[in-house]
Structure of DUF5642 domain-containing protein:
Amino acid sequence: MRNLRYALGLVVAVAGVVGVQALPHLERYRAAMGDAVVEAPPGGPAQHAGSRWRLISLKPVDPGERAPAGTRALTAVIGVTPLSQEAGKTLAKGCAAAVRDPSGRVWTSATVSSVTPVDGVEPTCSRFDGNYKPVPPRVGKELRWQASFVVPAAAADPMRIEVRLEGVEEALRLAP
């Protein structure tokens, strides 16, 4: 009986320690997993973090020989127009793109070196000068950038693009 009390006490103590360590990170985890999301109407633009966003295209591309068997590659071209200097500064901090299928599975953008870049489109949402310092995009001028993804061949369509800006809690979800 005494060993049972020690065992139960130990289980409660371990659960308490894990909970105390995990709770401060729960809000950041929820934001990263898509709880805080601005949804654009399908095919439509959206306002997010002081900029106007639109999904220009989301197309399958040839992944080349390096792609693992049973996968396919997609490239999204995204347009973003900062509506203020502050919005441009937010964009200059950087962003990350992911693709989500209807069942909620998420794949982050990948460097697919064998995918041909789209002409006239930046490789990221941030531009850099010759000294690798971020350069905010011009107010009112659309910046077009691309993100490529490798997903399982069986991943269902329609895919949605999620964009997360550095320093902004809410994500933006764009649908074709």
